[in-house]
Write the structure tokens for this entry.
Amino acid sequence: MLLFVDQLTNIDFSYLHSERGLVGETWLASIEMVGELDSQGMVCDFGVVKKTLKSWLDATIDHCLLVPANSPCLRRQSSSRQHQINWLGRSGEIRCDSPLSAIAFIPATDITPESVAKWSIQQLKPQFPSSVKSLSLRFFQEAIDGPYYHYSHGLKKHLGNCQRIAHGHRSKILIWRNGELSLQDMQGWSERWRDIYVGNTEDLTADDDSGLYRFRYRAQQGEFFLSLPKTCCYLMNGDSTIELIAKHIADTLAVENPGQHFKVKAFEGLAKGAIASSSQANGNV
């Protein structure tokens, strides 16, 4: 008997890619399991399936940095509290120091839905009842009809896993200019934030003209550090919450286009986000 749960949950995370660098991502997760019927006439109770998978994903992958452990781009060191990652890919050098729980090493040369699913199944199988004989896990992107971007960030003030310095999202964006949906503006931000790291200027360390931005902060979970090429970064004067991102995009568009009114619906991953509006008149936003 085969049991399935489609689009059971979604995960937001970042990963390291040999050409693209640090990539924010959002995947949906569907699961199938083959097994024998138990005394209740079930392979496994749906409540158990949902709770087990979601709890494991939340603790292991969601809001983490996924690193392909077998990649030649990687150099790593670990202590009892921290992982230190050095990554040299085509887009430049990236270094990340984070608490152990913020980084997941996947035994593969590349992070793909298939490589992450294979590793996840090995970890998940022992957590299900013996009636479950095999698992199949599928990760896939949201079907987005329109512009979108991949961004990574970290929110040091957040009390949950959003405080991790290198996690991210794949997000669509909707922009209205003077009440009309503006594909041009949406595409513009999609290009501007292609595989971007949205950093807070408050978290920058000294600039030594090396071509890198270095971000450092201490949060509830521990010490975080990230350095990456300036060309891969976009700076905000404040935290990159989705509320402030929506406001920043709307305000920036208004400044760049005086006399125009903008409404921005910014998504943070799947089916959630914030809306902000802005216009400039007489030099004031």
Q: What stands out?
A: The mean pLDDT is 96.
